[in-house]
């Protein structure tokens, strides 16, 4: 099936045409193009048989990919408040392509859906019943399309059945999260009700003490809008190092810059501790998988992460870790826990889901 994959984010609009597993065409447009004729023109010229849309939040309603009709589209509109930066451009692209290519079926694929298998123990916040019931408050998790693909691809690399593997997938990019995957199912993850929870990210703070935020409102006079802007856009590596570019941080840390070195240490401290927590949820580990821009491209992050996890049986071979391209195993020969690098291919995961839904 020839599938147009639409990944509309808060800062980019990526279009990919997949014909089977082959990328037959691609373009990156400005985010504003999500509701423009330019999007429809490019899509029409690509002659897709179906369209798959990445939608960040499926809320409690959508726990699997779904074909978009008027009822589904209305329900998706009700979820904007759960992902105000990401949901509107995705919905704009859905609306533009449903109107411009009405004969082409659209399927919504959700980043939260992979984590719908979290147990109540892993998904529940210890908050009043009334809050959880009224607003659907729970830990949803994100980057599910990337985690699902990385886990399945890892089983292929290891030539072992996915059903028997305990895998921690590390999606490390501008946004970053971990997933504990047992037998192909997500059993724990680091992001929660929103994509702000968990690891230190490019411009997001990750987990902070909620009491600190209350203190800043009460004693610092900060508004909810002030806190949102700071936590989303002015925190994380940007706040610690003055840049969100991991490659630059690693290089300046290597040259002796104290600020970048300290930022990297904070990043790695949170990352290693969170990986250990994911392993605890799994009861053991067969593979540690790095994906995403940082996970795929930073040998230093992989090496220093593994260096702090030797007690879990994790190690990398220095030469293999620092060389090679594409999907690969960078662990030393003969050890039980494999460390893998997997290119992020959310587009393949979306195309696979589209084919399954329309079948």
Task: Explain what this protein looks like in three dimensions.
- By secondary structure, the protein is of the alpha/beta class.
- Helices cover 42% and strands 18% of the residues.
- It contains 15 helices and twelve strands.
- The chain has helices spanning 37-46, 70-77, 87-100, 120-123, 129-135, 144-158, 210-219, 224-233, 236-241, 246-254, 258-282, 292-297, 299-307, 318-322, 346-358, and strands spanning 2-8, 13-19, 22-29, 50-55, 66-67, 106-110, 166-172, 176-182, 185-189, 287-291, 328-329, 338-341.
- The strands form two sheets. A six-stranded mixed β-sheet has the order 3-2-1-4-6-5, sandwiched between helices. It has a six-stranded mixed β-sheet with strand order 9-8-7-10-12-11, sandwiched between helices.
- Helix 6 packs across helix 15.
- It is globular.
- It starts with a strand and ends with a helix.
- The mean pLDDT is 95.
Task: List the strand order in the largest sheet.
Answer: 3-2-1-4-6-5
Percentage of residues in helical conformation: 40-55%
Mean pLDDT: 95
Strand content: 15-25%
State the distance separating the first and last CA atoms. 10 Å
Q: What's the quaternary structure here? A: single chain
Give the SSE order as H and E letters: EEEHEEHHEHHHEEEHHHHHEHHHEEH
Based on CA inertia axes, which overall geometry fits?
globular
Largest sheet: 6 strands, mixed
Radius of gyration: 20 Å
Number of strands: 12
Query: How many DSSP H or I helices?
Result: 15
**Unreliable residue stretches:** none
